[in-house]
Amino acid sequence: MNNPTGTTSGTTLRNKVAVVTGGASGIGRATARLFAAEGAAVVVADLADAGEVVREIEAAGGRAVAVRADVSSETDCERIVTIAVETYGALHVLFNNAGIILRRTALEISADEWDRVMAVNVRSVYLMCRFAVPAMTEGGSIINTGSGWGLKGGANALSYCASKAAVVNMTRALAIDHAAAGIRVNSVNPGDTVTPMLRDEARQLQEEWAAFEKDAADRPMGRAGSPEEIAAAVLFLAGDASSYMTGSALVVDGGGLA
Ligand code: NAI
């Protein structure tokens, strides 16, 4: 099967079963494709229809199933894990990646909007881990998508910054609690990455895409990232190459935080 990054063996996740949330788009989509290219059977969970991603994976010779689910819902999270185990017989890798952003200050965001961002970005990580950890009977790797804005502040994004800082520190707490079960937990922290979310941010701020993208490129490497570049880091955290890493916050941002 073709290898989207051209940098790996094609066998990193052989015989592994992975769940990717938010797998219909952007970083999740690129990661689901890379996981499958590296041998994993992938459960692609998303609020949106992930059928196209599954068809791409199958056309390239991989294994995947789409699950329509809201990761802020307890029953949906339980269903995602049940489908993984019933379809593929095990669970080894969980990529908690689904997320939303509202570019609003404290004065602009409503209490309901605040709760929604927290439910999708934070509650989901707790819920997915609650069901996935007991299913990882052979040990496993959990990767949570944080953000540069989980490690520093950012403008007009109060709830998002709070939610991603929570993800970074939940990752450490989860790593401590489940190390004895052979489960590693790390966060991947992207800088601006060209996905539908980034374009949506430009729309929310009523900025032209060209100007927004130029701002996003204002970092030592002079460009925003691609979803495939984030996926490559997630694959590293998912596989045995990172076997001594847990509780870490891996930054993938072209030097932005540097
Ligand atoms: P995206 O918008 O392209 O993809 C996010 C996916 O999550 C979508 O398919 C969406 O349908 C799904 N989703 C949203 N709410 C959901 C819910 N309640 N249940 C299930 N699925 C849901 O965004 P992108 O950029 O790929 O973002 C992925 C992750 O990366 C997010 O957690 C985001 O916060 C994070 N991130 C993105 C950065 C960027 O510049 N694009 C930078 C740093 C972090």
Mean pLDDT: 97
**Cofactors, ions, other ligands:** 1,4-dihydronicotinamide adenine dinucleotide
Number of domains: 1
Strand order of the largest sheet: 3-2-1-4-5-6-7
Number of helices: 8
Which class in CATH terms?
A: Alpha Beta
Number of β-strand runs = 7
CATH H-level superfamily title: NAD(P)-binding Rossmann-like Domain
Write down the secondary-structure element order: EHEHEHEHEHEHHHE
> Considering DSSP H and I runs of 4 or more, what fraction of the residues is helical?
40-55%
User: What CATH architecture would you give?
Assistant: 3-Layer(aba) Sandwich
Shape estimate: globular
Note the main sheet: 7 strands, parallel
Instruction: Catalogue the unreliable spans.
Output: none
CATH topology: Rossmann fold
Helix/strand class: alpha/beta
- Strand fraction equals 15-25%
Oligomer: single chain
| Rg, Å, rounded | 17 Å
Kindly report how far apart the N and C termini lie: 36 Å
Short description:
The protein has a seven-stranded parallel β-sheet, sandwiched between helices.
Describe the protein.
By secondary structure, this protein is α/β, with parallel strands linked by helices. It has one domain (17-252): Rossmann fold (3-Layer(aba) Sandwich), CATH 3.40.50. It is 43% helix and 15% strand. The protein is built from eight helices and seven strands. The chain has helices spanning 26-37, 51-59, 74-88, 111-135, 158-178, 196-204, 209-216, 227-238; strands at residues 17-21, 41-46, 63-68, 93-96, 140-145, 183-190, 249-252. It has a seven-stranded parallel β-sheet, with helices on both faces. Strand 2, helix 2 (51-59) and strand 3 form a beta-alpha-beta unit. Helix 1 (26-37) crosses helix 8 and helix 3 runs parallel beside helix 4 (111-135). The chain is globular. The model has no long low-confidence stretch (mean pLDDT 97). 1,4-dihydronicotinamide adenine dinucleotide binds at residues 21-22, 24-28, 46-48, 69-72, 97-101, 120, 145, 147, 190, 192-193, 195-198.
